[in-house]
Amino acid sequence: QSALTQPASVSGSPGQSITISCTGTSSDVGGYNYVSWYQQHPGKAPKLIIYEVSNRPSGVSNRFSGSKSGNTASLTISGLQAEDEADYYCSSHTSSSTWVFGGGTQLTVL
Amino acid sequence: QLQLQESGSGLVKPSQTLSLTCAVSGGSISSNGYSWNWIRQPPGKALEWIAYIYHSGSTHYNPSLKSRVTISMDRSENHFSLKLSSVTAADTAVYYCAREVSGGGQFDFWGQGTLVTVSS
Fold first, then answer.
1. I want to staple B38 with a disulfide (CB 3.0 to 4.6 A). Which of A15, B23, B50, B85 is the partner?
2. DSSP code of A29?
3. Which residues have a Cβ under 8 Å from the Cβ of B106 and sit 6 or more positions away?
4. SS3 label, residue A39
5. pLDDT digits (tens, 9 = 90+) for A3-31
6. Would the CB atoms of A52 and B105 count as touching at under 8 Å?
7. What would you report as the CA-atom Rg of chain A, rounded to the nearest whole angstrom?
8. pLDDT tens column, A66-81
9. Are A10 and A74 in contact (CB under 8 A)?
10. Does the distance separating the beta carbons of B110 and A45 come in below 8 Å?
11. Do A36 and B105 touch (CB under 8 A)?
């Protein structure tokens, strides 16, 4: 299974909004509403921030939102804050009943 | 609060077998509705899903690793384990254990991760 495709890096200024894309195929992202997003700060374990495309776990800021169109899922962070600077990963269920992650996106808050 | 803790050898020689255990506290690995996963991250690289085992004991593996990986569980000890055989330097990574809410793909609880280095 091939990793999902994410941009290597994105950046934005405090208060702005950014969007990170996650592109797969009809056998993963496009075929299921089981896309999740994770935030990872250096040296830490990933943290779940979005599941099932657009749902937020309890305690996650509503500045984080998710969506999907066709084979591409997206994570939008609005009102960027310095603490949002981290790596972000998407994941998806696959037709083989396995899971696949994206290559990760480094977010820089300018 | 559920907690997961990885343990095992931090240094493995090439061609040998990597063995890790994930101890689960604050919940039972026998509970319906969850799978128990291993995920790894080579230094400076992306996450890679390795395998999962359901509460029932059924297993699924990453096709690229399937021939070398075994995941198992010990309900009496409330832990699950990973064995990766014939390791090379490419298997050097931080290995995480994580719980997934069955079918939804939510890896909602993670261990802190343990670095395994493959070197002679």
1. B50
2. G
3. A36, A48, A51, A52, A57, B100
4. strand
5. 999 999 999 999 999 999 999 999 999 99
6. yes
7. 13
8. 999 999 999 999 999 9
9. no
10. yes
11. yes
Average pLDDT, chain B: 95
Question: Considering only CA atoms, which of B3, B11, B2, B35 is closest in space to residue B114?
Answer: B11
- Rounded to a whole number of angstroms, the distance between the first and last alpha carbons of chain B is 39
Residues in chain A closer than 8 A to B107 (CB atoms):
36, 38, 46, 48, 91
Scan for tokens 């299974």, then name that residue.
Answer: A1
Interface contacts (A, B; CB < 8 Å):
70
Q: In what order do the strands lie in the sheet with B18-25?
A: B3-8, B18-25, B79-84, B69-74
pLDDT, tens digit (0-9, with 9 covering 90-100), for B37-51: 999 999 999 999 999
CA distance B100 to B104: 8
Torsion angle (degrees, nearest 10) of CA B98, B102, B107, B113 = 10
Task: Compare CB distances from A51 to B49, B96, B106 and report the shortest one's residue.
Answer: B106
Q: What is d(CA B87, CA B82) in angstroms, rounded to the nearest whole number?
A: 13
According to DSSP, the β-strands at A9-12 and A18-23 are unpaired
- Using only the alpha carbons of chain B, give its radius of gyration: 13
Residue B7: beta bridge partners?
B21
Q: Which residues of A have a CB under 8 Å from any CB of B?
A: 1, 3, 34-36, 38, 45-48, 51-52, 57, 89, 91-93, 96-104
- The answer to whether the beta carbons of residues B8 and B114 sit under 8 Å apart is yes
